[in-house]
């Protein structure tokens, strides 16, 4: 009888008294060196200043988790760092709170927020632009053979530059690069990619290097592959390569030709129990000083006043210094064709 | 198992018992059944709620997609009179009603949900719906109910085409087999015929998973057999000691073992370093993130599931059979193949089925070491659950996999009996 | 025979080497998964305990360890209690629909985890149980029950159900009967079942990936994201600790089994 009672108590304890975490909210971002920079310049100072505790989580993008939380009414994430591609979808599906842009503080130099931020940073009602980042390719100076690659065509030139190339396993960026390397002008890329013929053309171009490709799933694998010899050229978020060069003295070089840049945005998940604190956090994180901290990983700030805090030596290594060599990723295009191209991409991988 | 219950003896008992006694015994019998059942009930209820119901929800989800029907009920009602095989778009009245509904969706910030569903049937329409929604949001509803059609078309010419309305009507069905068709690489054309889809992905993935699972099953049998035989014929003390080397991996976390394989197989990993040190190879071989990595890591992980049943069957085989055969003049190898091997079939089939069932639905190891060509059907299910948000398709793919597993499980139950599964 | 022994040892090596190889690697002073030259020449400076220290200095790993034990223990209690009762009922020859019910109760072991996880994600989300400790515990308990049934069932083979009837017939209350007649006989089976259930939960990551929120992060979940994101030897250090834990579990199980066999053969 005693044993049964004990069992009952144990079950009751288990089902009722799960560890309770009081007075904290959860912020979610992409981890790695980028996450570390956010922790250092955005989360830690905020926690110190306000006394709120933030649980910092990693995710790998996408809106599935947010969707599940909102639809079940069980919101676990309060603030998310989200890519513009996903932001557009999440916002139009009602998964994010509308952020009151008029409450954003002025820059440290006194410029009102609406003039201080770049227009793209405030173009969506659900979030506030946090950084400008980009996807480019990088090579290892010690393992590359055949000279120094400088253009996107070189990535597809396996005769001149033999060796494996590592790309992230998804159609995004890869399809754009294939067309750019095939001579399609930058301003027509997304129009061409919307047609059947354009998609065929892109896959045909990718076919030419298919046997030399290595695929990875997460950005943090890119510098690792370049480091351990898994590939001689890798596609990467610029910050990861910058960090490997800067902190670990890796012999990596970045190629800015045809980089595809985009914004990352702080947004609040719909139905959060910590809305006021979440807004306070975003206002803090996107103010002049914290934003400038992202220079640690070579991501550019979205507000002009932040540049006052950026090391002049780093400015040429920020995506904002290379905009004319690059192409802005189209959130609208990928909302339209992300899924169908994703399937075609999988089919292409299998064949 | 001793059988003391009355049912087995009821024929004999009948002749000596009176009617009352028989009724009494039946009552006792019923009571015993009830007690036995009462012991099982709590778990049965628990498993029903915690496990069977979720599986049921998934099956339901694979055919049930009410999103569009909930978003635009009025439009769908109006569309029901429209013949989708005709070459003309629905008339203006239908478009007007849609314009009014779209305006409301945009205000409620639900237009994205509609856009995602329609885009699935007609890639490219997501931006059409969202852009139109943004425009309609600013319009007066009274104006929309009379002039909606022309305003829609003025915003985006796609509203003039038949395709978008066809997809809209099709997506409006609450119960649909379209996810299953997609999962089988099929599609329905405008004449309602089932035709192969433009993209052929999933059948290939199923075949690939079957191939990988089969390879792993064969490999585990091939290398598990000699070890089991050695253990079964060794002295009990040696066998018990060596068994630890089989059981420790069996008890070790699957993630630990997968981690080990990453350390072994990576470009600068242990295997490549050793091979280079021994001058077998001059350049490291790419092993991690390949199908090879998936196969070898899973063979390692599942090997104990083959060895344990094989060993327990082999231990029960009397070695004198083999000796008898040889003393009657049979040569060792043919005697082994013709006398011993057939007796191991129960263990071999149990192990093979278990390994095959477990490996066909494996997710973690392929996800971590498989790269691109080592991916299995589970990985694409996870992809549709987590990245593409196509839950209906994920559910349909999962249901097909489940059907395959249950078929194998049924065979296993017939051949081996699920209550005969032994652990450790 | 010589060839057979060689083959058998080669297979044993295949089973063990991958597990052993991570042990020295976890003491690597460099942040890589590879043997450095210093390690091979047994230079003491090439070895370090920093990755072990990292586990215990990192809040996330500490939370993960706490969660793994908490969730594992709770799931084990539920699975063991329900599974033991069910096994007793199922082993009774008068049990109706024995075969079908058995197949159903063992199905959580057979259905691929990705399907279970997807189904639970749909269903538990509707109940508001996703991202809660309760949801994860219930899910893990469901996954653990088949193992309890199997081990208790094995311990019950040969159990004479008339003993139970005798006890009940003599007027002993059912609970007394359970703890004083049945339990002593099946205790070894219950304990190994509980260990299996615990390990099932302790190792499980797919359901966690779908069902758990940030607060319910467990060791395997943390390892999984580590392997996908930033591979560093902390994961190897954790892996070594897990191997030690599984070794202890294995010893416990073997001890119980050996004891059980001796009890049966009348040695004790």
From TrEMBL, chain A:
It comes from the Bacteria. Residues 1-22 form the signal peptide. Keywords: Signal. The keyword rRNA-binding does not apply. Gene3D superfamilies: Periplasmic binding protein-like II. PANTHER family: ABC TRANSPORTER SUBSTRATE-BINDING PROTEIN, SPERMIDINE/PUTRESCINE-BINDING PERIPLASMIC PROTEIN. This is Putative spermidine/putrescine transport system substrate-binding protein. It comes from Neptunomonas antarctica.
Automatic annotation (TrEMBL), chain B:
This is Putative spermidine/putrescine transport system permease protein. It is a multi-pass membrane protein. The chain crosses the membrane at residues 34-56, 212-232, 244-264, 292-314, 335-364, 393-412. Belongs to the binding-protein-dependent transport system permease family. CysTW subfamily. It comes from the Bacteria. It is found in: Cell membrane. The keyword Transport applies. InterPro entries: MetI-like, MetI-like_sf. Residues 206-412 form the ABC transmembrane type-1 domain. Keywords: Cell membrane, Membrane, Transmembrane, Transmembrane helix, Transport. The keyword Transport applies. The lineage of its organism: Bacteria, Pseudomonadati, Pseudomonadota, Gammaproteobacteria, Oceanospirillales. GO terms for cellular component: plasma membrane.
TrEMBL record, chain C:
SUPFAM superfamilies: MetI-like. One of its GO terms (cellular component) is plasma membrane. Keywords: Cell inner membrane, Cell membrane, Membrane, Transmembrane, Transmembrane helix, Transport. The chain crosses the membrane at residues 7-27, 69-88, 100-124, 136-156, 168-186, 192-213, 234-256. GO terms for biological process: transmembrane transport. It is found in: Cell inner membrane; Cell membrane. InterPro entries: MetI-like (IPR000515), MetI-like_sf (IPR035906), TNF_CS (IPR021184). Residues 65-253 form the ABC transmembrane type-1 domain. It is a multi-pass membrane protein. Belongs to the binding-protein-dependent transport system permease family. This is Putative spermidine/putrescine transport system permease protein. The lineage of its organism: Bacteria, Pseudomonadati, Pseudomonadota, Gammaproteobacteria, Oceanospirillales.
């Amino acid at each position: 009888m005693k044993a049964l009672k004990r069992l009952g108590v144990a079950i009751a304890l288990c089902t009722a008294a799960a560890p309770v975490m009081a007075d904290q909210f959860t912020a979610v971002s992409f981890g790695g060196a980028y996450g570390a920079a956010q922790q250092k310049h955005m989360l830690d100072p905020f926690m110190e200043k306000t006394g709120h505790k933030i649980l910092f989580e990693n995710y790998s993008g996408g809106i599935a988790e947010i969707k599940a939380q909102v639809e079940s009414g069980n919101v676990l994430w309060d603030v998310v760092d989200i890519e513009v591609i996903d932001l557009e979808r999440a916002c139009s599906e009602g998964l994010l709170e509308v952020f009151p842009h008029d409450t954003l503080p002025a820059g440290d130099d006194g410029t009102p927020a609406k003039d201080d931020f770049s227009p793209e940073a405030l173009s969506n009602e659900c979030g506030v632009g946090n950084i400008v980042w980009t996807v480019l390719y990088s090579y290892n100076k010690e393992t590359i053979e055949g000279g120094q690659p400088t253009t996107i065509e070189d990535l597809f030139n396996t005769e001149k530059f033999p060796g494996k190339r590592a790309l992230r396993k998804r159609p995004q960026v890869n399809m754009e690069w294939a067309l750019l390397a095939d001579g399609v002008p930058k301003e027509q890329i997304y129009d061409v990619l919307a047609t059947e013929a354009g998609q065929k053309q892109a896959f045909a171009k990718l076919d030419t290097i298919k046997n030399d490709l290595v695929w990875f799933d997460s950005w943090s694998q890119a510098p690792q592959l370049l480091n351990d010899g898994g590939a001689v050229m890798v596609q990467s978020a610029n910050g990861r390569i910058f960090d490997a060069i800067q902190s670990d003295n890796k012999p990596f070089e970045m190629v800015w030709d045809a980089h595809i840049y985009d914004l990352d945005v702080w947004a609040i998940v719909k139905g959060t129990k910590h809305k006021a604190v979440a807004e306070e956090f975003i206002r803090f994180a996107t103010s002049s000083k914290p934003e400038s901290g992202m220079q640690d990983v070579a991501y550019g700030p979205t507000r002009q006043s932040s540049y006052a805090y950026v090391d002049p030596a780093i400015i040429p290594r920020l995506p904002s210094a290379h905009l004319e060599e690059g192409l802005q990723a189209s959130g609208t295009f990928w909302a339209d064709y992300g899924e169908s191209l994703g399937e075609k991409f999988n089919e292409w991988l299998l064949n | 198992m001793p059988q003391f219950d009355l049912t087995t003896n009821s024929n004999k008992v009948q002749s000596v018992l009176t009617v009352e006694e028989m009724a009494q015994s039946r009552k006792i019998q019923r009571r015993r059944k009830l007690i036995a059942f009462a012991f099982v009930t709590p778990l049965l209820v628990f498993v029903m709620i915690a496990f069977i119901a979720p599986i049921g929800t998934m099956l339901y989800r694979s055919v049930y997609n009410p999103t569009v029907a909930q978003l635009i009920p009025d439009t769908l009602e109006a569309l029901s009179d429209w013949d989708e095989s005709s070459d003309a778009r629905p008339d203006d009245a239908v478009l007007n009603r849609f314009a009014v509904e779209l305006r409301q969706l945009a205000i409620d910030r639900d237009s994205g949900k509609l856009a995602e569903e329609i885009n699935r049937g007609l890639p490219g329409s997501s931006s059409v719906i969202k852009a139109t929604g943004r425009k309609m949001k600013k319009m007066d509803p009274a104006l929309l109910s009379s002039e909606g059609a022309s305003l829609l078309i003025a915003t985006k010419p796609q509203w003039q085409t038949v395709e978008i309305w066809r997809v809209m009507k099709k997506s409006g069905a609450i119960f649909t087999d379209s996810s299953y068709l997609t999962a089988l690489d099929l599609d329905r054309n405008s004449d309602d015929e089932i035709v192969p889809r433009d993209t052929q992905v999933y059948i290939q993935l199923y075949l690939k998973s079957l191939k990988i699972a089969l390879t792993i099953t064969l490999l585990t049998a091939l290398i598990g057999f000699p070890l089991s035989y050695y253990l079964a014929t060794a002295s009990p003390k040696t066998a018990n000691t060596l068994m630890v080397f089989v059981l420790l991996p069996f008890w070790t976390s699957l993630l630990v073992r997968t981690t080990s394989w990453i350390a072994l197989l990576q470009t600068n990993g242990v295997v490549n370093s050793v091979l280079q040190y021994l001058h077998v190879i001059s350049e490291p071989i790419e092993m991690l993130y390949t199908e090879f990595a998936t196969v070898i890591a899973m063979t390692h992980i599942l090997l104990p599931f083959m060895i344990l049943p094989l060993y327990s069957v082999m231990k029960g085989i009397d070695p004198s059979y083999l000796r008898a055969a040889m003393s009657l003049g049979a040569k060792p190898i043919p005697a082994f193949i013709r006398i011993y091997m057939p007796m191991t079939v129960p263990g071999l089939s149990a192990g093979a089925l278990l390994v095959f069932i477990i490996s066909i639905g494996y997710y973690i190891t392929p996800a971590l070491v498989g790269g691109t060509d080592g991916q299995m059907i589970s990985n694409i299910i996870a992809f549709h659950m987590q990245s593409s948000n196509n839950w209906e398709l994920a559910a349909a793919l999962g249901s097909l996999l489940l059907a395959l597993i249950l078929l194998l499980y049924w065979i296993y139950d017939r051949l081996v009996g699920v209550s005969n599964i032994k652990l450790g | 025979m010589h060839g057979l022994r060689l083959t058998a040892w080669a297979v044993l090596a295949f089973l063990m080497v991958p597990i052993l190889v991570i042990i020295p690697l976890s003491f690597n002073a460099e942040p890589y998964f590879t043997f450095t030259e210093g390690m091979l020449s047994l230079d003491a400076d090439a070895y370090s305990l920093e990755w072990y220290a990292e586990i215990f200095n990192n809040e996330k790993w500490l939370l993960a360890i706490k969660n793994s034990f908490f969730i594992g223990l709770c799931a084990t209690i539920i699975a063991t209690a329900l599974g033991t009762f069910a096994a007793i009922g199922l082993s009774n020859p008068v049990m109706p629909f024995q075969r079908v019910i058995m197949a159903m109760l063992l199905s959580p072991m057979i259905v691929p985890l990705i399907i279970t996880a997807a189904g639970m994600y749909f269903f538990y989300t509707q109940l508001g149980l996703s991202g809660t400790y309760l949801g994860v515990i219930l899910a893990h308990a469901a996954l653990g029950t088949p193992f309890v049934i199997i081990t208790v069932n094995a311990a019950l083979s040969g159990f004479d159900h008339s003993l139970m009837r005798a006890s009940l017939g003599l007027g002993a209350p059912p609970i007394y009967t359970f703890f004083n007649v049945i339990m002593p006989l099946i205790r070894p089976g219950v304990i190994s079942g509980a260990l299996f259930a615990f390990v099932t939960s302790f190792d499980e990551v797919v359901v966690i990936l779908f069902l758990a929120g940030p607060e319910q992060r467990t060791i395997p979940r943390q390892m999984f994201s580590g392997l996908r994101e930033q591979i560093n030897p902390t994961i190897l250090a954790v892996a070594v600790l897990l191997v030690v834990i599984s070794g202890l579990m294995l010893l416990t199980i073997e001890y119980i089994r050996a004891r059980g066999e001796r009890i049966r053969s009348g040695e004790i």
